[in-house]
Write a structure and sequence with these properties.
By secondary structure, the protein is an all-alpha fold. Helices cover 85% and strands 0% of the residues.
Length: 122
């Protein structure tokens, strides 16, 4: 698998998925008066489905399948757990929440890319 074309494509999809997440969450809270937790949960699902479909076809040039969908979800779930662990660890060490966010943004996308490249789409 070629790293060169898949990495910038993966980053582009990640930015687009983040924008989708924000738009869906804001719409559900502001327009439909949903609870922010539920709105973000739904927004995560929508953004994750978008991310899977576009990354599968464009970033990694594969066909969608149940097997790759399960693997995509596993990598996404592990990234979510790691995000929580990094944030809590920074807080437990006395660091600011901004440092936690910075570390999450610096570490998680690259690790997620490697997980998808080496597990989801192998």
């Amino acid at each position: 698998m070629k790293i060169a074309p898949s990495l910038p494509r993966f980053a582009t999809v990640g930015v687009a998925a983040t924008i989708i997440h924000v738009l869906v969450a804001v719409a559900l809270v502001a327009l439909m008066n949903w609870h922010p937790g539920l709105a973000n949960g739904i927004a995560f699902i929508v953004a994750n489905l978008f991310s899977y479909a576009v990354n599968t076809h464009w970033s990694f040039e594969r066909q969608m399948s149940l097997k790759s969908w399960y693997r995509f979800l596993a990598v996404s779930f592990l990234a979510w757990l790691l995000t929580i662990a990094v944030s809590w660890s920074v807080d437990a060490a006395g660091g600011s929440y901004q440092l936690g966010i910075l570390l999450v943004v610096a570490l998680i996308p690259g690790l997620t890319y490697l997980g998808h490249r080496n597990f989801t789409y192998r």
